Protein 1
Amino acid sequence: MDTPTRSTADLTDQLLAEAAQFIDPLPTAFERAIRAVPRHLFLPPLIWLRDGHGGHRPCDRATDPDEWLSAAYSDAPLVTQFTDGLPTSSASMPSVVLRMLALAGLDRKSDRGRVLELGAGTGFNAALLCQLCGDQAVTTVELDPTLAAEAERNLKAVGHAPRVVRGDARAGWSAGAPYERVIATFSVDRVPSAWLEQTEPGGLIVTPWHSAWCSGYGTLVLTTTPDGGEGRFHSFASFMPMRGSAPSTADDSGGLPEQVTSSSLSPWAVAGGDLNAEFHIGLTVPGACYAWDASGEHAPTRLDVADDTGPSWATVDYDGHHADRFTVTQSGPRRLWDEITAAHTRWENLGRPSVDQYGLTADAAGRHTAWVEGADGRQPV
Ligand SMILES: C[S@@+](CC[C@H](N)C(=O)[O-])C[C@H]1O[C@@H](n2cnc3c(N)ncnc32)[C@H](O)[C@@H]1O
């Protein structure tokens, strides 16, 4: 194995400078924690880096130690595990980790309440939590027992011993409750009631968010109350979804016949990269998801829309010429394109709010109510 040429101290300086572009000024406690927790000690010899085309490429410490070490100190997420071709664990992007810790108020924390991390992964974030709150205060939960064991080893190697629990983080970890802070490092589309129950009133739950339509975008910060929680979304972060999600409740009882209509709503307006519009649709049209079909087999460009909880589907075709009229075919008990069109109209009528104008209230029974705050005050969505 070759020896890397750059020192980890230089690389850490560079990482801190990159992180400071997102958190300025970088809290002293964070700088100290990052300096005390060498990120490369948390990484396996084989990691996967973004390839710039939406995929990943391997980076092996044995054959490219310089690139591997530079990657370890880059402000980038590093995939550490693939399962069935999909990334299932990673060392999260350091600036995102720090922004979430800041949202959890850990940059200014002094009373050292208990903290629950959900998704131990490499153990890096748990090590930062130990630096900030003390090992005794930190519990981290990991579903994959092999990853949990590695996280424990990595933490030990840098002198930390928080409680590492093997299990499904959907259930939190009741034995250590109540927590003052709960921080998830995978995304959810609902806040599990166990998290609300195990967080003390006035505590914070910080969790990345996803919906079927807008996979992985936004971070929710809920302040807990005796009977639920309430809080806002923040427009950053994209995390892998929680594993072990409930099985789909697809209903195969057959649907309505196909209906062909035309629509003036461009599929690009709702699935073309406007994260604010896509976030609104994800929040308000549950279960709807999409995929682009540019094969030309059915139309020059087609948007395929499906319901991931049932048999409904829709297609929206662009004929290659007319950008003001699109052919829509819908089938099943839900008229998905009609729902999406209504949601988009509502988003426009609300003044095209951005992700950080949205919030969520969860009650003790697990009911979620999403809302948006605009010029006219708070409105349910
Ligand atoms: C982005 S990685 C975590 C990064 C980690 N915090 C770190 O500092 O390296 C997400 C982790 O969450 C874990 N995970 C996903 N779903 C889970 C679940 N239901 N229960 C526990 N862990 C889960 C994955 O196995 C993965 O290791």
Note: The longest strand covers residues 199-208.
Protein 2
Amino acid sequence: MKSMRFLATTIAAVMTAVMASTMMVNAFAAGPGMGTTGECNEYDISGIDLENAAVKPTLSLSRIELPLNEARENNIVTIELTVSGANEQYASTGLHISYDERLDIVMNKKNKCATLGPAGEYLMTGVRKGLYPNDFFVYSAAEGNFGCDGVLWTFQLQLPENIEVGDKFPVEILYRNENGNNDSFKNIEGQGNEICDQMEAWVFTNSIEQGYIEITEPVVQEDPIEAHLGDIDGDNKINASDATRILGAFSALSTGGDTGFTEEQLAWADVNKDKKVDAKDATVALGYYGYTSTGGTATISEFIAQGL
Ligand SMILES: [Ca+2]
Ligand SMILES: [Ca+2]
């Protein structure tokens, strides 16, 4: 009964925080600051012995480096909010997540901004759109310290159209204390319990690893066949012995024998890519050997295409 009563109290407190979060637009408490993506408040650590905190959790958001070509192919990026160092030591949480204004949140199938991860499986949770176009609020309660280490929330952000290499889009957990309803990371004992107070203070002052999506240089996918074309023995050189092996394979194929080639080697042996392995391929490989031996630097495909 006691735990049920506690749960009811906790939920009421969380709901109050939620109401405040959605209604109070400009009512930030003392010490307002700015994150990169929005406003936040300073956590008040007066009277708290941080260094001796028994539980020192870390909250981290994904840091994603995404090659430009991949980002253009799929412009929706999944971010994880991960808890570590607090396994089964927390219950009620309230966190504001804020993201770069150029990003758009992608709602999940239940039309929510975020989806609960395995770390929160035994918590009662909720998600609400925040006060600003670029933030939301996730919260939890439980009748025991059922919050686990691992991925607590995931959410998806859509990149804008005009991305370029070097673009960086921050994603942040911003501590907010709106009209006395502060964000939280507490155990079941709640405020006034030393372990609880120290744990929460630790999280919000020392141990948030903010996330980002950064667009990096495009990664050129190497064509595995192209990379080895003509190089039958895989020694990264195309020379007379490759030509000899191609010729040997051609003989074997002509007489219905076994080339002894793997499927990949057969593909590499079709140097002119006419779907046949024959004397022409051997000739080209040998010619290319002559070409590179006399200072040529084009690839074998360029050698063929340009008639070098
Ligand atoms: Ca070779
Ligand atoms: Ca061929």
Note: The chain is about 25% helix and 25% strand.
